[in-house]
Specification:
By secondary structure, this protein is an alpha/beta fold. The protein has 18 helices and 15 strands. It has an eight-stranded mixed β-sheet, sandwiched between helices. A seven-stranded parallel β-sheet has the order 3-2-1-4-5-6-7, with helices on both faces. The protein starts with 6 loop residues before the first strand and ends in a 6-residue tail after the last helix.
């Protein structure tokens, strides 16, 4: 019962990228400070969000330091009915961090549990800011934008990009290439089909077609698939079976073999061709990667910080599948005509953005080449071949040297929030 004498440090988040690259480094920053870890019980609440995967809990439960996890359904039950409060025995005092998603949720939750918790956020959203003690932002650009939106100067603090604090480099590049039997002169090209079910459902069979064509058209490229921890192998098998059935773009099926050479799972496809499936993430394999092909998301800025040249594929073939917040996202619930309206509305909305990937948004420049439009699968293949033929990947890598923050944003946030309490 000792744990319930602690105050609560409650963290709110909303999706795979935020849980892995915002929540985890903040939790680790608390854990390495003995005073904090002994004073606070850490609870993670993932609230409903169109950007969620539904599998955040299975990953977050593996983070050392998180003592309780509350998923979207249980959170809503507590919020709307109050049922469940006794189960978790929330402290009346403590700290609540918003690390992803709508700033409304911590405010309403604090009110529901009748708490006096201090609220902090790392965000680019300005709504509900008046309830927060401090709002941490990635850059001066975001800070100035929020100032113009009416957020008080005293509430804002530039911390740097939390994603940078999540970076780990576990294997030297030479060790990675030796383990994967990548020979001198070969290019290790990794395909990242996403962390959400709808992404993998479409992009995995499309990427398989690209990998098959590259094997026939270009030499010296050794492709791999990087599996997200938020996607199960069972779902991968279903997505592979969907290959060849996608109407909006060309794709091919494949068969997953869970125990392959060197104990790596692999996918067999198109006349006996194979591609290995990598787990453990960029932290394990990243130093050996020469080039990546990825969907948009937090992974794009991770790749930039790791100085891995990348092609970002953001097809608008089915715009209605893209997660959309606010009233626009409710259109899908309108019977009969909802999806048709949503498709047109989201397409119009997305085409207003010049870029799909975070590095390009941050710099307002095409650092990573993008296919952000209605595309055919062959265009992905052609673009990859063009990049290697013209050695564009080398030019991209030079641009990535600018993505180098000096300090740890997670440490700065913890120091700012807890002050003299924290000592390493």
């Amino acid at each position: 019962m000792e744990q319930f004498k602690k105050k609560d440090l409650i963290i709110f988040s909303n999706g795979p990228g935020e849980v892995s690259t915002w929540v985890q480094p903040v939790v680790e920053a608390v854990q390495k400070r003995g005073e904090l870890s002994s004073m606070y019980r850490i609870l993670l609440i993932v609230h409903p969000c169109p950007f969620g995967s539904g599998t955040e809990g299975s990953v977050a439960r593996g983070f050392e330091g998180i003592e309780e996890f509350i998923g979207p359904g249980e959170y809503l039950k507590i919020l709307f009915t109050g049922l469940g409060r006794r189960k978790f025995r929330f402290s009346r005092e403590g700290v609540i961090f918003s690390l992803g998603g709508d700033l409304m949720h911590p405010v309403l939750f604090r009110r529901r549990i009748k708490g006096r918790h201090t609220l902090y956020a790392y965000t680019k959203n300005q709504g509900w800011a008046k309830y927060y003690e401090k709002i941490f932002v990635r850059s001066d650009y975001v800070k100035n934008k929020m100032l113009k939106q009416g957020v008080s100067h005293q509430k804002l603090k530039v911390s740097g990009d939390l994603v940078y604090s999540s970076l780990k480099f576990l294997r030297p590049g030479l060790d990675v290439r030796k383990e994967l039997d990548i020979k001198d002169g070969e290019k290790m090209v990794v395909f990242l089909p996403g962390s959400r079910a709808f992404e993998v459902w479409y992009m995995l069979p499309m990427f398989l077609k690209v990998i098959s064509d590259i094997a026939d058209r270009i030499s010296g490229v050794k492709p791999f698939l990087l599996k997200s921890p938020y996607i199960s192998y069972d779902f991968i098998e279903k997505a592979l079976a969907n290959g060849g059935n996608i109407k909006v773009a060309e794709s091919i099926p494949g068969e997953l073999k869970r125990q392959g050479n060197n104990f790596l799972p692999y996918i067999e496809f198109s006349g006996g061709k194979r591609v290995s499936v990598l787990e453990k993430g960029l932290k394990y394999w990243g130093e050996g990667i020469d080039f990546a092909v990825t969907v948009p998301g937090t992974n794009t800025i991770q790749l930039a910080y790791r100085e891995i040249p990348s092609l970002v594929v953001a097809p608008l073939n089915k715009p209605e599948l893209y997660p959309v917040e606010g009233p626009l996202g409710l259109l899908k619930w309108i019977p009969l005509i909802g999806n048709m309206i949503l498709k047109k509305a989201v397409f119009k909305y997305l085409t207003k953005f010049p870029y799909a990937s975070l590095p390009n948004m941050y710099e307002n420049e095409e650092i990573f080449p993008e296919l952000f439009k209605v595309i055919q699968t062959d265009e992905i293949t052609d673009k990859i071949i063009e990049i290697f033929t013209n050695k564009e990947h080398e030019k991209i890598k030079k641009k990535l040297s600018r993505f180098k923050p000096d300090d740890s944003p997670a440490d700065l946030i913890i120091q700012e929030a807890f002050g003299d309490v924290v000592r390493i």
